[in-house]
TrEMBL record, chain A:
The keyword ATP-binding does not apply. Residues 413-479 form the Transcription factor Tfb2 C-terminal domain. Belongs to the TFB2 family. It comes from Coemansia pectinata. One of its GO terms (biological process) is transcription by RNA polymerase II. GO terms for molecular function: ATPase activator activity; double-stranded DNA binding. This is RNA polymerase II transcription factor B subunit 2. Residues 285-321 are annotated as: Disordered. The gene is TFB2.
From TrEMBL, chain B:
GO terms for cellular component: transcription factor TFIIH core complex; transcription factor TFIIH holo complex. Residues 82-258 form the VWFA domain. It holds the Pfam family Ssl1. This is General transcription and DNA repair factor IIH. SMART domains: C1_4, VWA. GO terms for molecular function: zinc ion binding.
TrEMBL record, chain C:
It comes from the Eukaryota. This is RNA polymerase II transcription factor B subunit 4. It comes from Coemansia aciculifera.
Length: 493, 404, 322
């Protein structure tokens, strides 16, 4: 499943697809948890969210036609498709031309907004004595990053000096075809390279989805896993949560997610666990850990006035201390395809090495260039031009972030051209017709094929014709009927 | 590009902060500016002892502030304006010293200017004149509808440049246009010139006398250099003459003409102007008299009951100026400007900026001269604001949150 | 201005009218309205993790920023029924409103001021725009933050505020900020706020409290005010009733179709007068029309006095709409 995933959007739709594939009873059980409803709600598209919210406090069903009327004339198809999507997710139910929200979903989403419902749906904070080891947000961040990077390092094969990750991690990597077994241990696959280029939240989604599949295979209750997953996503960073109410499967999952660095436990079987920013950022977006609003948001005006760095509710302050320098963008790309990267992370260098011709390495700084060869090497591994461009854009140095477009347009165009270069030959399954007996027969055939638009190539001189596979059936039919007609005519004579 | 040269006729119109002095081409050491050694701007920046350029940044902030400290007396301004915009379309406008060409840059700026002009002066009028080949052509007559002018600028393409401009012809035409303007409104000409010459049929000095006699104020933004006769016309009619250094500077200079100038002449009279306040109509699509297109929304002229599609404008049938009450309100801030805030140090009653709630930074060091900066106090309500809010309040909001 | 993208985050400034007197006039209690507003805020935060929120509260004396607050008002609880982020916001806003209401009640007894409550709406809007300005100035160029303001208004218009309110409305329009108005009570529609919504392209809602209040306010808010800029491009907004932009004359308070406007201070009169009552300008005895063809001579023209702000303000505040 990890073969076709470019952006985060696609991941979200993949998890949405997963939900769509669930049978109705399963859906009901998933929806019975407010945290899950909230998390699913957040996966919807903007218009979809608005449709749900518009109907959330409507008690009666409304006509489907009326819902379509909410859209402006130009955008009706868009709204239709969104309504369709909601119905596939079983959030909307339709009955005799009227639609309403799934009653369980409605009730639980209302609970999520009002704070009603089951008291443990958003996790049970651990109030017992915390071990003397201080688990700060900062520490958690470095713990999570270490763990996560160790896995990525393992993937790019820099794990010689480090301990390989646990068997369950390797199992998931193998199952998701990010890595495969070979003679000299595990080897990264092409989809693994693509995985590396994604931002961390997309990567975490991949792992979680993979875990769901694993759970299915092991006959675990998928709903239990899903609900726990959605609950984890809505936890608060830096706070201990109690494990007392967890089921056996959930405890198992807890342990495995700990090995990915998504959660932290003091020891296996400890009564409390901590979510790390890797998992909490899935619900609160990009990099900021506390979403729209951090309470430590005292805005500071710099001494000169106006130079003061923010605060209002961006949470950027907190991000600053959590994110590693390398997360903040370190790549400078020039219009002449030269690239400079302020990093000394072996991982980042290894990733850059996928598509950059590296020239110099200094402490904390490397230089290189995007060349035709280096980019083609990446393309041949199945990495797409868009993935390269996205990676460079998201990791661009703050100095470059301010521009529009972020990357020099010459370079992005060139990368796309290099990609197209590889696609000069496009195979199309086709049928080749030759040796037409008469000129009329050829011409009739040619005209017919032209009319139905299936000609790929034709030569009048040689009386040869190449048609697509779709066209073949019809052409063959025509030939047959003509042959039959000719035979009948001959017989009549 | 020539150094920014300007001749401030109105002393509240300072813009060039780095200017050495009005009307003085002599440099600091007595020689002409172009005889001086080339100054490299990056050499001017001095790091302080700790290697920081904080003090320079503070200086830039000061400059930013200085720019917008304006006269805030409740002076009488000509709220109802009549402006003729003269655009040079001679061959000189083909030069590429402004990107992509002078004429392109000019047209972009003028388009922005027209939008801004009608935004801030909703009940004023504008006319556009182009000059090329020694002739002047009126592109649009005086009108209060921005769409007319924007359409004309787009329509004519104005790309075919030819010959020399004729400032005299253009000014005569402008004067003729402005003669019809009522006396309660201002009469102004704003020129954008790229040519260093003008090809005139007669004595431009006589035109200057006529301009003075009919109280027309001429301002000019020149794209190349100062020309004596242009500058004199501006000076003697009470306008301002600027030379643009680059595109950004040109925009600033042109936009100086957006707020209404104070009335200096004693001849200006006050009038009662008849205006219509139309009702918004909707429901059935009907054609409008301005574009002859069907539309749902429109405004019905109270005198002749014809429908126009946007406000403010003049009724195309009976000529009544049509405005809405908010349009009149839009001009009030020119009449009652906010007072300038004063920079203060030390403690203040507010724990944070009264506008945006930003918390004050601790003064880095009490002994340092920069300590406690960044607070600006409104003299009326005694509330403190940060620099961002200070600028915002005076340039966009026109309202002190503490005073209202 | 560029088109809003689906991924662009929003900034919502909620202005809550906490004028206790005005709420007593309303069939909807302030507690009830507050509850519904909290749910609305939670819904807004649920939309996008990047969404930003500012909550201002205003009564007739002061305007306070409730959220983001200086300190966290929410104690850590064991019983978590709600998403942590919602809980913090909700607790902060609620305690802020309570503090303001009790403050107002305390000073009321001391001061014995007139009960008639008008809310400092122009101050609240000005502050809201300052907040928006700061957020926009600080957000990176790559991500555009689309801002809007929601006003929950209970009190009546204050005519003194007309000019200030108009200035804020035009500033909002220039910044591309939508102003949604939710008028809960009050004797009549708020003409000023109606214009604010109309000019900035927002929605004006009058909550129909005759239907028993209940959750009708919440449903209306969810339906119309929750949508961000992008969604508003896609979905239809409720069509506003025809808003009358006709002016009222300063002399007789009549609504005029065709009026006479002083060229100096823009006061509106329904008939010709020799002297402007606002700025004391003497008029020439001739009605000027923009299309008057002949050049004309001034009859008398000396204008010595500049407009007096105080007098003008008072007079202009009557420039209301019918």
């Amino acid at each position: 499943m990890a073969t076709q995933m470019g952006s985060e959007e696609e991941f979200k739709s993949t998890i949405a697809e997963y939900l769509e594939s669930l049978p109705t009873q399963f859906c009901r059980r998933v929806f019975s948890n407010p945290a899950a409803c909230l998390a699913i709600f957040r996966l919807l598209s903007t218009v979809g969210k608005q449709l749900v919210m518009s109907m959330l406090y409507l008690d009666s069903a409304i006509k489907l036609q009326d819902v379509y009327q909410w859209a402006k004339v130009d955008h009706q198809p868009l709204v239709r498709s969104k309504v369709h999507q909601l119905r596939k997710l079983q959030i909307l139910t339709e009955e005799k031309g009227t639609v309403s929200l799934n009653p369980i979903f409605r009730e639980q989403l209302r609970n999520a907004l009002t704070g009603g419902g089951d008291f443990s749906s958003f996790g049970i904070p651990y109030t017992g004595a915390v071990s003397n080891r201080g688990v700060s947000k900062k520490w958690l961040a470095s713990y999570a990053n270490d763990r996560w990077e160790a896995i990525l390092h393992f993937m790019v094969g820099h794990s010689a000096d480090a301990e390989p990750p646990s068997e369950s991690v390797r199992g998931i990597l193998r199952m998701s075809k990010l890595m495969e077994n070979s003679e000299e241990g595990m080897k990264i696959t092409n989809s693994g390279f693509q995985f590396l280029l994604q931002d961390s939240s997309s990567q975490v989604w991949t792992v979680l989805l993979q875990y769901l599949r694993l759970a299915e295979m092991q006959d675990m209750d998928v709903v239990e896993v899903l609900n726990f997953m959605f609950q984890l996503v809505s936890l608060q960073l830096g706070r201990p949560y109690s494990t007392e109410a967890l089921t056996r499967n959930q405890r198992k999952m807890l342990a495995e997610l700990c090995s990915f660095g998504l959660l932290y436990q003091d020891s296996v079987g400890a009564p409390q666990f901590y979510p790390t920013h890797l998992i909490t950022s899935l619900s609160s977006g990009s990099a900021s850990h506390s979403g729209p609003s951090s309470t430590d948001s005292a805005t500071v005006v710099g001494a000169g006035g106006g130079t003061g760095r923010s605060a209002i509710p961006t949470g950027s302050k907190a991000t600053g201390e959590l994110a590693k320098p390398s997360d903040q963008g370190f790549i400078i790309l020039e219009t002449n395809c030269r690239m400079y990267a302020y990093t000394n992370s072996a991982l980042q260098i290894a990733i850059l090495n996928l598509f950059v011709h590296l020239v110099n390495r200094f402490p904390n700084f490397i230089t290189g260039a995007l060349t035709r060869d280096s980019v083609r090497r990446a393309l041949s591994r199945g990495i797409t031009a868009d993935q390269i461009i996205t990676f460079l854009t998201t990791h661009a140095h703050p100095q470059m972030q301010g521009r529009t477009p972020v990357l020099p347009i010459t370079v992005t165009d060139q990368i796309r051209l290099w990609e197209q270069e590889r696609n000069r030959l496009r195979p199309t399954p086709a049928y080749f017709y030759k040796d037409f007996g008469q000129k009329q027969e050829y011409e009739r055939m040619f005209k017919y094929a032209q009319d139905i638009g299936v000609i790929l190539w034709a030569s009048n001189e040689k009386r040869q014709l190449v048609v697509t596979r779709q066209g073949h059936a019809k052409i063959a039919e025509l030939v047959k009927s003509q042959r039959a007609a000719a035979a009948a005519a001959a017989a009549a004579k | 590009m020539a150094k920014g040269i300007k001749e401030p006729a109105d002393d509240d119109d300072y813009i060039d902060i780095d200017d050495t002095g009005p009307g003085d081409l002599k440099g600091a050491d007595g020689g002409y500016a172009w005889e001086e050694e080339y100054k490299r701007s990056w050499d001017v920046i001095q790091e302080d002892a700790s290697g920081s350029i904080q003090s320079i940044v503070l200086g830039i902030n000061d400059q930013k502030r200085h720019r917008r400290v304006r006269d805030t007396e409740a002076i009488q301004r000509g709220i109802i304006r009549h402006v003729v915009l003269i655009i040079d379309q001679s061959e000189n406008m083909n030069l590429r010293d402004l990107m992509p060409t002078r004429i392109q840059a000019t047209l972009t700026m003028v388009t922005a200017f027209i939008g801004e002009y009608f935004d801030q002066n909703p009940i004023s009028q504008l006319s556009v004149i182009a000059t090329k080949d020694g002739l002047a052509e009126k592109l649009t007559d005086l009108s209060g509808n921005p769409m007319d002018h924007l359409g004309a600028l787009k329509d004519k393409a104005n790309k075919d440049l030819a010959g020399e401009p004729s400032l005299q012809n253009a000014l005569e035409l402008a004067m003729h246009t402005l003669k019809r303007a009522p006396t309660h409104g201002s009469r102004e000409v704003v020129c954008v010139m790229g040519s260093l010459t003008t090809c005139d049929p007669g004595d431009i000095a006589q035109t200057l006398e006529a301009l003075k006699a009919s109280q027309v104020r001429v301002s000019m933004v020149h794209l190349a250099a100062e020309v004596h006769v242009f500058k004199r016309i501006c000076r003697e009619t009470g306008g301002v003459f600027y030379v643009a250094q680059n595109e950004d500077n040109m925009k600033d200079l042109l936009f100086e003409n957006v707020p209404p100038p104070p009335i200096v002449s004693a001849r200006a009279t006050a009038d009662m102007i008849q205006m219509g306040f139309p009702i918004k109509a909707g429901g059935v699509p009907t054609p409008c008299v301005c574009h002859h297109e069907l539309g749902f929304v429109g405004y019905i002229c109270p005198r002749c009951k014809s429908k126009v599609c946007s406000l403010p404008t003049d009724c195309d049938v009976c000529g009544l100026p049509l405005v809405s009450a908010p349009h009149l309100a839009r001009s009030y801030h020119h009449l009652f400007p906010e007072e300038n805030f004063k920079e203060v140090g030390g403690d203040s009653v507010d724990s944070a900026c009264f506008g945006c709630g930003a918390v004050w930074a601790e003064p880095p060091n009490d002994t340092e001269p920069g300590g406690g900066r960044g607070k600006y106090r409104c003299p009326r309500c005694k509330h403190d604001y940060c620099l961002e809010c200070d600028i915002f309040i005076h340039e966009t909001l026109h309202n002190c949150p503490g005073c209202v | 201005m560029s088109e809003p993208l689906e991924s662009d985050p929003s900034l919502l400034v909620v202005i809550l009218d906490v004028n206790g007197w005005a709420w007593t006039q309303s069939p909807l209690t302030i507690d009830n309205a507050l509850q519904q507003m909290i749910i609305f805020i939670n819904a807004y935060l649920a939309l996008k993790p990047e969404n930003k929120l500012v909550v201002l509260a205003s009564n007739k004396r002061e305007c306070k920023c409730l959220y983001p607050a200086d300190r966290n008002q929410a104690p850590i609880e064991r019983d978590i029924r709600i998403y942590e982020q919602f809980r913090v916001v909700d607790a902060t806003v609620l305690s802020g409103v309570q503090a303001m209401l009790s403050d107002a009640a305390a000073t009321m007894i001391e001061g014995e001021e007139d009960e008639e409550g008008q809310t400092l709406m122009s101050r609240a809007l000005s502050k809201a725009l300052c907040h928006i300005h700061r957020v926009e100035a600080e957000s990176s160029a790559a991500v555009k933050v689309w801002s809007r303001i929601l006003v929950i208004s209970a009190a009546d218009d204050s005519p003194r505020e007309y000019i200030a309110l108009m200035n804020t409305i035009f500033a909002a329009q220039r910044m591309g900020v939508l102003i949604d108005i939710c008028k809960v009570s009050g004797k009549s529609d708020s003409v000023f706020l109606q214009q604010a919504a109309e000019i900035t392209g927002g929605n004006y809602l009058k909550v129909d409290t005759t239907r028993g209040g209940g959750e009708s306010m919440l449903q209306t808010l969810m339906f119309t005010c929750l949508a961000d800029h992008y969604t508003r491009e896609v979905l239809v907004s409720p069509t506003s009733e025809t808003i009358d932009f006709r002016a009222t004359c300063f002399c007789h308070k009549r609504i005029v179709d065709i009026g006479f406007v002083c060229s100096v201070c823009l006061s509106i009169f329904c008939e010709l007068t020799p002297v402007c009552s606002t700025c004391q300008t003497k008029f020439s005895f001739r009605v000027a029309r923009a299309d008057s063809a002949a050049p004309h001579q001034a009859v008398n023209g000396s204008l010595k006095q500049s407009p007096k702000p105080a007098a003008a303000t008072a007079a202009m505040s009557t420039l209301t709409l019918s």
